[in-house]
Design a protein that fits this description.
mainly alpha
């Protein structure tokens, strides 16, 4: 069981916010920020390796990870065909210089 004392909870929230700020501002690469935040969480005792990887309640949801991985593989293959560029140009032509119409079209294409 991990330590749930108030100082550990406050430190964990601080680490999370710090990593989020580093990712949002791109001061460091997002992978480094995420891995650094995870390492600090282990060091302060906010989680353990067992709980992070194998706990059903608080651990990694492997179904989501594998779904995202599969989507990234499919997208990387479709990207090489030029479909996304074609759809963006098509939406731009159909919008005829109207920003709101372009936004709606791109949102519909993305949702599809």
């Amino acid at each position: 069981m991990t330590d749930t004392s108030p100082w550990v909870v406050a430190a964990a929230v601080t680490v999370f916010v710090g990593a989020y700020v580093l990712i949002a501002t791109e001061w460091v690469h997002r992978v480094r920020a995420a891995l650094g935040g995870a390492a600090v969480m282990f060091l302060i005792g906010a989680t353990t390796g067992q709980e992070a990887f194998f706990s059903a309640e608080t651990g990694i949801d492997w179904n989501v990870i594998l779904l995202l991985f599969g989507m990234m593989v499919v997208i990387s293959v479709v990207k090489q065909t030029g479909l996304f560029e074609y759809l963006a140009i098509w939406a731009g032509k159909r919008a005829r210089g109207r920003p709101y119409r372009l936004l709606v079209l791109l949102c519909l294409i993305t949702a599809g």
